[in-house]
Amino acid sequence: MTQQDKPLASAIEAIGDTPLVELSRLTQGLDGRILAKLDYLNPGFSKKDRIARQIVEDAKAEGRLKSGQTVVELTSGNTGTGLAIVCGIKGYPFVAVMSKGNSIERARMMFALGAEVILVDQLLDSEPGQVSGGDLELVEREVQRIVAERNAFRADQFQLTGNFRAHYLHTGPEFIKQSGGVIDAFCDFVGTGGSFAGCAAAFKEHNPSIRCFVVEPDGAAALAGEPVTYPNHRIQGGGYSMSSLPLLRPEHVDGYLKVTDTEAICLARRLAREEGIFTGYSSGANVAAALHLLQTSFKSKTIAVILCDSGLKYLSTDLWE
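-> structure tokens emitted (321 positions)
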């Protein structure tokens, strides 16, 4: 981690360079290591701060984002929080469009940070806390309407390469530096695919033998080519039943791992109790997948994971009942 020896110009400069921690208590009795990047310690409490900064700065440098122009994006709450921070500091009005199925803490946080927050109703058969691909389609339609109506810049996290670049230029190299380059595998719960794609590309350039695994919800492993039988899973921020994501590079995917809701919740709770690390569903999913690797084909190896966001964003859910 970079040692700060002087005041930063803004909270934007505090994004990244998050600590890497070995989860030695969770792996007690196992042969191998899990190295977890604490990206919930970013200013907006998630890894998505990284892509918010990169997307806005890339768009400004390329002339696609004009001074004072409104920025709009679909979000499960984390990208929106990052964009609220970055846009607020840089002087761009920001509109966050989110499904009502995501936890209300996220909407309140974005609003507190100056964003206009628009919440979209879920499908009739959806449940709060369980955002499906169909729910996401409703949000996407609303985003497109607002972009056209306000002549806004779409900070499209599913399409724009700033999402990939944030992790390729920064997160992946940070992992390599902080671990001393000793990583055997990486597993990552996929939402947009940006953190997986960027880190995997950096890892493969450093050492082509590092194995990179996509993590998906059990019953919604569309990227693995399986039929979707459980679209309303509880792991917020990903597993949207999409069969392809533009940012993913198939040549960097060495395999697919499935995690159940129960496994993700159990490991999020264990992270809090045993490691003092307070995170959300997707972080639990990543650690569950890493433990599976250590117990099977990667015994005695070192597995890298990202701990994506803070457990504070899920206090209204049954994750912390």
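The domain at 11-47+160-320 is CATH 3.40.50.1100 (Rossmann fold).
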